[in-house]
Every structure is written in C-alpha cells, then in structure tokens.
Amino acid sequence: MTHMTPSGLTTTDVQIAIVGAGFSGLGAAIKLAQNGFTDYVVLDRGADFGGTWRDNTYPGAACDVPSNLYSYSFAPNPAWSRTYSHQAEIHRYINEVANRHDIAAHTRFRTEVLDARWNEEQLQWLIDIETDGVRTQIRAAILIGGVGPLCEPNLPDIDGIESFGGAIVHSARWDHDYDYAGKRIAVIGTGASAIQIVPEVAKIAGHLDVYQRTAPWIIPRAERPYTTVEHLAFRYLPGYGGTAVQGQHRTRDLRRGVAPRRHPRVPRRMQAHPQVQRVVPGARPRQRRTRHQSDRVGHTARHRHR
Ligand SMILES: Cc1cc2nc3c(=O)[nH]c(=O)nc-3n(C[C@H](O)[C@H](O)[C@H](O)COP(=O)(O)OP(=O)(O)OC[C@H]3O[C@@H](n4cnc5c(N)ncnc54)[C@H](O)[C@@H]3O)c2cc1C
C-alpha cells in the first residue's frame, strides 16, 4: 500500500524490508519466500545482485574458501569451474540463484537506504530511501540488515594522502580505465585481496612495492580447474560437493603441516610459518612494527610515488 506522509514523502507499507542484495540479503529473501512470506522488499544501491561480488572486480578477485563450500547450502552448484572461483563466476552464480527464486520482482535496485528509525507508536520501521535522486519512505514491521561488513571501501589514514599526485585505487572500486602498464605501483597491505592483486599487477607494472604492516597467515591455495570426474561427482553424488570437499580441504591443510586454527596445544607462531619457509627458504618473521613504525611505512609509500 502506498500513501503520503505529512511531510509529503510517498510511503510504501511492507511487512519486511531487507537492506542489501548480496549473499546475506538474497539468502534472507529466498528463505522468507520459501516460508510463505510474500510481502517483503529488498533494497540495494547497486544495479544488480551480488554485493561484494558485484563491486570487487580487481584483477585476480576470487574466493578464498573453496567454491563448493562458498555457495548456498540450498543451491549447490555442480558447475563451479575451479576450486576457488573467480569474481565473475560467483557474481553470475548469485544472479542465477536470484533469478531462479524470482527475487528481482521484490527488489529495488539503485535504491540507497539513508535512514531507518523505529517508531514506537506505529510499531513500524520508518526507512528513508533514495532511488535515482527521488526520496521516498518505506514502512516495515521487520527490518533485516544484509549490508555486509566490507561494502564501504576503507582508505588508509596516511598523513598527507590527500596531496598525493598519483592515482589512488581501492580494490573494492577498481579503476579499469586506468593504464597500469609500466607504472611504478605500490600495493598497501598483504591481506586476502592484496594476495590476489599483487601477482596480477606484477605482470604489467614497471616497478612494484608491497607494504605490509602485519604478516598474515598464509597457506598454499591449490587453485586449479575441477576435472570432468569431479564435475560428474558434484552432479550425481549427493553431498560430494559439500562434505567431500570440506574433508579434502581439512586433510590437505593437515598434510601441509597447517595446524587447525585455535588448536590449544599448537603455538600460534607455528601454525602457518613452515609454508613461508618452503616458498621463501630462510624466511624469518620480521620484528613486529609498532603503530608509529607503520605510519612511517605510509610515508615511505608516498615518497616513492613522487
Ligand atoms: C574480495 C573479497 C573476497 C572475499 N572472499 C570471501 C571468501 O572466500 N569466503 C568468505 O567467507 N568471505 C569472503 N569475503 C567476505 C564477503 O564479503 C562475504 O563472504 C559475503 O559476500 C558478504 O555478503 P553480504 O551480503 O553480507 O554483504 P555484501 O556482499 O557486502 O552486500 C551488501 C550489500 O548491501 C548494499 N548496501 C550497503 N549499504 C546500503 C545502503 N545504505 N543502502 C542500500 N544498499 C546498501 C551493498 O550495495 C551490497 O550490495 C570476501 C570479501 C571480499 C571483499
């Protein structure tokens, strides 16, 4: 039902409003639909489903949990092409699942949620939204947040970054028009995204520096295409894609000497370091940097760019 608020905003009443059309929001919408709820709306500022997998298009973007496990339990995908699928394939999977359940019919894309407040008298959420520059309101009894923890790009707080003369690109908003070939490039960070970006950028950069404040735990990823036999097993052996892949994943980690996380009898320092020594013989953990030292790393990055 649609009506006008006293302040002139068009208001639409729904039972349930879901913010976000990534894995979380879409999953919530599908489960609501499967349980007989029809009066819900999904709100997302983007132009299609996918969230993280729509926005992160940097070179090398892929999942770091095996694809068979990084899928909806109710929508296994026997066609995953690789052990760790790339962004485009995951984005496609999410949109296919959304289409299968007809969630687009309940979704408002290019719609930003500006504010949401609980009204005690009406026992409703009042949700201010903006679609293509037009502000309206949604009133809902239930509000589900699926906005994700990583959807806002986080730029490092480096002293003087605003006066840096070169291009600044965040992994979550990759600039595909910029010509990276032959450039002097610095990657700040060595987390999950940098680990994927660095090998790709290294192929074309004129010079590449990588800045690390805190060393992450790393293990070999064993990334490869799935074989025909595996594809057949995913399709025809119920549970193979979930249980068996999870088992292989764990066994592989144990064989490689990676202790189970949080194992009480294994010191944390031993858990992944042998892998570093295998890849980089003689490698030792560097001394820990203090906050002050890490700020200096930021300065170094800036000077090198000039
Ligand atoms: C590069 C990368 C790789 C990753 N790999 C893995 C992995 O291998 N395994 C793993 O478990 N996790 C991984 N993650 C974490 C990943 O974010 C989550 O697994 C999952 O995709 C989060 O889904 P979500 O729906 O909760 O959030 P998101 O995918 O972030 O979706 C949130 C949605 O909310 C929308 N939104 C936010 N605010 C508003 C607003 N105010 N108004 C309207 N819409 C709004 C956004 O547009 C977005 O579409 C990875 C993350 C990144 C960035």
TrEMBL record:
Could you tell me which Gene3D superfamilies the record lists for this protein? FAD/NAD(P)-binding domain
Pfam families on file? FMO-like (PF00743)
Q: Which UniProt keywords apply?
A: FAD, Flavoprotein, Oxidoreductase
Protein's name in the database: Uncharacterized protein
Q: Which family does it belong to?
A: Belongs to the FAD-binding monooxygenase family.
Q: Which domain of life is it from?
A: Bacteria
Where are the stretches annotated Disordered?
245-306
Q: Where is the composition biased (Basic residues)?
A: 258-271
The keyword Oxidoreductase belongs to this UniProt entry's keyword annotation: yes
